[in-house]
Design goal:
This protein is α+β, with helices and mostly antiparallel strands. Helix content is about 20%, strand content about 40%. The chain is built from four helices and 16 strands. Strand 5 and strand 6 form a beta hairpin. The protein is elongated, with a radius of gyration of 25 Å. It comes from Paludifilum halophilum.
Length: about 300
């Protein structure tokens, strides 16, 4: 399947830019391939720059972040396009294996930027879908076999990794509200950092633990659910009020090579900086409220 986008300069002598992708959906680790064609207008045009980029857009706490994660120049020197002439350039862009996958909070598009002498630059875009790799799809099937379903808030990028959120629709509904996890794809299987919240209202407590699922188990979801179910029982037991092990833990602790970690170097710094600013403002607002109620002299 070919995807085509076209945009013209608002002029009778418009240069026409076409962008084709060999297909619209790819997996992390694959190589996006396509072609860019530039057709001349009614007069000779000089192309100064022609660049293809893959752009990620993420939504975190109602803020939008957008940056190119891969870019490639299609010409190394200016090119002249004669009237009615068409020139084409093939391109390929490898997708990192730790790229965040597409979802409600994450999307991608390919963008071509063309700059001509004496004219306003032209940009052409088309959506790109980054789908879960085969190991991730098998992991998701395991969650489904355990009667969990992915929520609409899942796949959010926290600044250093992509977090998946699943909620129970079966027997676990009475013990867990939802389960969050980070994933790292390893040659022998998938490593998860699991976090869970209790279903009891009013509790913000959260506990976490790591779990490794070898490929041999992921090939058989009916077998893979056993260690996953055991890990959930451990988390649920820690969340019991009478459990001495129950304590709040950081659900976003780093997991080396986690899915989504590639974006840390592009939009991750911006997101983490904003999250830190939000936390500082919340602390300041809390101090102001405390001082207003109890007086400044009792703020310690």
């Amino acid at each position: 399947m070919m995807v085509k986008k076209m945009m013209k300069q608002p002029s009778e002598e418009a240069t026409e830019v076409n962008l084709w992708l060999n297909r619209s959906a790819w997996e992390a680790g694959e190589t996006v391939e396509g072609r860019v064609a530039v057709a001349g207008g009614s007069s000779e045009q000089r192309i100064e720059e022609l660049e293809i980029s893959l752009v990620i857009t993420a939504w975190v706490k109602e803020r939008e972040y957008s940056e190119p994660i891969k870019s490639a120049r299609l010409i190394s020197a200016p090119v002249t396009i004669s009237p009615s002439e068409t020139q084409t350039w093939d391109f390929s862009m490898p997708l990192p294996k730790t790229l965040p996958i597409s979802g409600s909070p994450i999307c991608y598009h390919a963008k071509v930027r063309l700059a001509e002498t004496g004219r306003k630059p032209v940009t052409v875009t088309t959506p790109v879908q980054v789908n879960p790799s085969d190991p991730l799809r098998r992991l998701f099937r395991t969650w489904e076999a355990l009667e969990f379903e992915e929520t609409s808030a899942s796949r959010v990028f926290s600044g250093d990794a992509q977090e998946f959120i699943f909620s129970p629709v079966g027997g676990w509904k009475n013990r867990l509200y939802h389960v969050m996890f980070l994933t790292a794809l390893e040659p022998e299987g998938i490593r998860l950092r699991l976090s869970a919240n209790p279903c009891a209202s009013g509790k913000k407590q959260q506990v976490s633990r790591e779990l490794f699922l070898p490929n041999s188990l992921l090939d058989r979801p009916e077998d893979a659910i056993r260690p996953l179910d055991a890990a959930l029982r451990d988390l649920a037991n820690q969340l019991e009020p009478s459990s001495p092990a129950a304590s709040e833990k950081d659900p976003s602790s780093r997991l080396t090579g986690a899915v989504g970690s590639f974006a840390t170097g592009t939009i991750g710094g911006l997101i983490l900086s904003d999250l830190m600013d939000d936390a500082a403002k919340n602390r300041q607002n809390g101090d102001k409220l405390f001082n207003k109620i109890f007086g400044k002299g009792n703020s310690r």
